[in-house]
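**Folding the chain**
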Amino acid sequence: MSFIRDHSPDEKLFRSLLKGLTFQRIQNPGGKALVFAEWIDARVFDYSRISELSADYSSVWTTKDEDFCRRQHDPPQWVDWLQALHHRFTERLLLLLKEKAESIQDRLPKDADLSALLTGLQQKDADAVSVFLVRTDREYNQAVRLFIQEYHRKCLDHVRRNSSQDPEADAKDLLTILLEKFLKQIGEGRYTGPSKAKLSVYLHPILVNSWNDEYLRRKKRESQLPAGPAYEWPAPDKAAYVKAGVERLKEPCQGIIRSRNIEDLPWKDVALRCDLTEGYVKTKHKECLEALRTILDNPRF
């Protein structure tokens, strides 16, 4: 992390999170190509998984590619197709990275890594780009861990002093909300790095207001929960009934329920697909189940 060694801890955190937010959704093209190659080599075509992967190739995946995967081909044909797809994706990746790098260069004008990245992009050096993405992802994860270590204690202290019946669980929920709001402010440019005030001073009112909102929201939700036994879904049409209810959910609940309860994906994959933190989707999942239950209990709701 040489590019931030001359800055304060708050500045290091900000730079790592900003870079991570900018580049974390861009995947290594070589890695994706290897996944394709494994499926092709095994001659196993799970169309739902291919559709998921094609989302990462959204700018280059075509109906011709989809049709190609559904047909039988000789090994050389598969290799040629894979190489062509990989080339198209790499070209798109380099263009996308250039746009993202230029968009934050004004916010980090003296960042040596960004300057080196832009040079590599101009030379279309895909290997150098992949190395940069791996390093950025590592720095982003480290910054998130440091944030959690520092602010979990602050969240725990606050909920203990303010009407929490389960401080440990509430502190985790509050920390998730706090991190989500902070990342959103960085991404939107509302927080541009520490100036005179420390980061803790900046985040304190957000923490306090988040807990007040969360506490009041929980109380309201608890008062609205229906009494009596749990609702029994109609057995004959259970699948269709639940599917119709899920389709009425708003995002991100619809995506979370589909990924976790219908497709049975791990929490990490659910978070990645919904573009949310793992802690947030775990917390949000409870609310989504309640929202789904409300819909199923009240078909005309």
